[in-house]
Amino acid sequence: SGNVTKLLELKQPTNTNDDYEEDDEHVHYVSSVAWHSKSPYLAIGTSYQQVHIYDVNQQTCKRKLISDTMLDDDDRIPCLAWNQNVIA
């Protein structure tokens, strides 16, 4: 229908540190999302090699994963997929 509905507002993880803050070289944004089909979990990939897993019912970040294997200029997580309870 062309209408946009806000499903929820997620807060930044409380365990953030300097590697998540914006700086002159990086603008951080959501680069991918994946809903778990059988639980209230939403995985969000960022432009800064991070995956955040949220419980949308509690509106809290349950996990924050940081990739250290991406070595090129493109630091974003381009896609996410759930395989049962494993995020890939």
What integer value in Å does the Rg equal?
14 Å
Order of helices and strands: EEEEEE
Share of helix, binned: under 10%
Return the domain count. Answer: 1
**What would you call the shape?**
globular
Unreliable stretches, pLDDT < 50, 5 or more residues? none
Task: Write out the strand line-up for the largest beta sheet, numbering strands in chain order.
Answer: 1-2-3-4
Total of helices: 0
Mean pLDDT over the full residue set: 77
- How much of the polypeptide forms β-strand, as a percent range? 25-35%
Number of strands: 6
- Derived from helix and strand composition plus strand pairing, the structural class reads mainly beta
First-last Cα distance:
32 Å
Quick one: biggest sheet? 4 strands, antiparallel
Pfam families: ANAPC4_WD40
Organism: Rotaria socialis
Protein name: Anaphase-promoting complex subunit 4-like WD40 domain-containing protein
Domain Anaphase-promoting complex subunit 4-like WD40: 23-85
Sum this structure up briefly.
This protein has 88 residues and is mostly beta strands. It has one domain.
What's the helix and strand layout?
Blueprint: E1 30-35, E2 41-46, E3 50-55, E4 60-66, E5 82-83, E6 86-87
Antiparallel strand pairs: 1-2, 2-3, 3-4, 5-6
Region (Disordered): 1-21
Domain Anaphase-promoting complex subunit 4-like WD40: 23-85
Protein name: Anaphase-promoting complex subunit 4-like WD40 domain-containing protein
Report what the structure shows.
The protein has one domain (18-87). 0% of the residues lie in helices and 33% in strands. It has strands at residues 30-35, 41-46, 50-55, 60-66, 82-83, 86-87. The strands form two sheets. It has a four-stranded antiparallel β-sheet, with no helix packed on it. Strands 5-6 form a two-stranded antiparallel sheet. The termini are far apart. InterPro entries: Apc4-like_WD40_dom (IPR024977), WD40/YVTN_repeat-like_dom_sf (IPR015943), WD40_repeat_dom_sf (IPR036322). Residues 23-85 form the Anaphase-promoting complex subunit 4-like WD40 domain. Pfam families: ANAPC4_WD40.
